[in-house]
Write a structure and sequence with these properties.
This protein is mostly helical. Helix content is 73%, strand content 1%.
């Protein structure tokens, strides 16, 4: 949402000359998205960044716990769960930061367009979530699916609460980038439709007493392919929309090739330039931390189901923070830089990306596990239970509220936030109360 860097813009006070030039071409200057990567100097830390120290703390705790487990010493279930949660959170947060930093430095090295770099960064940052899913599936495939679905509701709540505190104009609005509102609305419609269709079909099979009582591996694989196909088209249209917007901005500001190149390079002015080996090391560190964090989360799932006797829904609510870690990190990074539009767009992406990337990945991973690895797991096939039906059907009202608000081109006010909060809490209450089956 920032304007050309040579004009020294801020989101709250865009340059008058640039704003007039954009408005003459029919472009709202407050909806121009320009993602500035890296951190400004006043936010930088001396020495190692905080995520490195977080990783070291997590590694220290992990090195203390693993020998205890290897020696067969059994900690009380609550203590074991608490320690694993802390270690998992530390590892996954550090993993996300490492992957985001590596992607930004790679983009700066290759001079990607800002909208391409931003899209790739958000997709790469989901790796910790996908690793968590892979580790949880052997423990409980049902819990893995439920975690992915509950995270959608959780991220919808984060979007509503965060948008309420953003700076508003005199009409109480904070404008999202046009590329997000146009393509994002279509994706929410798709999500509401797919969730409703899956939930209603499950309900019909459940009510009619049909012989088919659960998802086969082929069912899950087909659903995954359809949803991943939708996500692929969404990414294409999103990047194309940003590209057309960028071309329109450069034309409106009458930038020559040198000025356009300077504008492009300025996107990475705050990104530290490093060697390719350093970037590879960051990717490896991020992947390693994600694996260590995912292993701890699977330990939490194991203890919660076997020792604490939590049902999968209750456990998923507790572990939803792990699945949404990447979105929270990216939103916080953008917010610290006062790039509120980018932060809000990422909060919105936390909803759509989980629905059309993390959830279908979960379906596909479960299908492979069910079809080729362990066919007789107690959770398989995933049944058409009441709790599973509700998880899908209740996507419709959640997405419908977001569609209505985005179509009005504003973020959530007090009443909107209360509405979303009420829907989310009602969904969780119903699922926790009736999710034992």
């Amino acid at each position: 949402m920032t304007l050309p860097p040579d004009k020294s813009p801020t989101e709250e006070h865009p340059p008058v000359s640039s704003a007039h030039s954009l408005r003459r071409e029919g472009i709202d200057p407050y909806r121009v998205a320009l993602h500035l990567f890296g951190l400004p100097k006043h936010l930088l830390w001396r020495g190692y960044p905080p995520w490195v120290w977080t990783a070291f703390i997590g590694l220290g705790l992990w090195l203390a716990v693993v020998p205890i487990e290897a020696l067969g010493w059994v900690l009380p279930p609550l203590a074991q769960t608490s320690i694993s949660i802390i270690i998992g959170l530390l590892f996954l947060r550090s993993a996300c930061e490492a992957l985001v930093t590596a992607t930004e430095r790679l983009a700066a090295r290759l001079l990607w367009d800002h909208y391409v770099a931003g899209t790739v960064t958000e997709i790469v940052s989901t790796l910790p979530e996908l690793v968590v899913i892979c580790f949880v599936i052997p423990v409980s495939p049902l819990a893995a699916m439920v975690i992915a679905l509950v995270t959608i509701y959780n991220n919808a709540l984060v979007f509503s609460v965060y948008s309420y505190f953003l700076p508003k104009d005199q009409k109480g609005r904070f404008m999202m980038p046009a590329a997000i509102t146009e393509v994002g609305t279509q994706l929410l419609i798709a999500g509401a439709g797919i969730g409703s269709v899956i939930g209603l079909v499950m309900l019909v099979f459940l009510a009619e007493g049909q012989s088919k009582r659960g998802f086969s591996a082929i069912d899950l694989a087909v659903l995954a392919m359809i949803m991943l196909g939708v996500f692929g088209v969404y990414v294409y249209k999103l990047v194309k929309g940003y590209a057309l917007e960028e071309q329109s901005v450069q034309k409106a500001l009458d930038l020559n090739e040198a000025e356009a190149a300077e504008r492009k390079a300025n996107v990475y002015s705050q990104v530290k330039r490093t060697s390719l080996w350093n970037i590879i090391a960051l990717f490896v560190a991020g992947a390693t931390l994600a694996i260590l964090g995912g292993e701890r989360v699977s330990e939490v799932a194991q203890v919660a189901l076997s020792e604490l006797n939590l049902n999968p829904i209750s456990m998923a609510v507790c572990l939803a923070a792990f699945a949404g870690m990447s979105e929270y990190v990216i939103v916080w990074r953008a917010h610290r830089k006062k790039q509120y539009g980018i932060a809000l767009a990422n909060a919105f992406g936390g909803i759509t990306q989980v629905m059309f990337l993390v959830l279908p990945f979960t379906f596909l991973a479960i299908a492979i596990y069910q079809g080729f690895l362990v066919t007789d797991h107690v959770d398989l096939p995933l049944s058409f239970s009441l709790s599973n039906v509700l998880l899908f059907v209740l996507l419709f009202p959640t997405f419908y509220v977001l569609i209505a608000l985005i179509e009005e081109d504003h973020t959530l006010g007090a009443l909107d936030t209360v509405t979303m909060l009420a829907i989310f809490l009602l969904v969780i209450l119903i699922l926790v109360c009736y999710g034992g089956g």
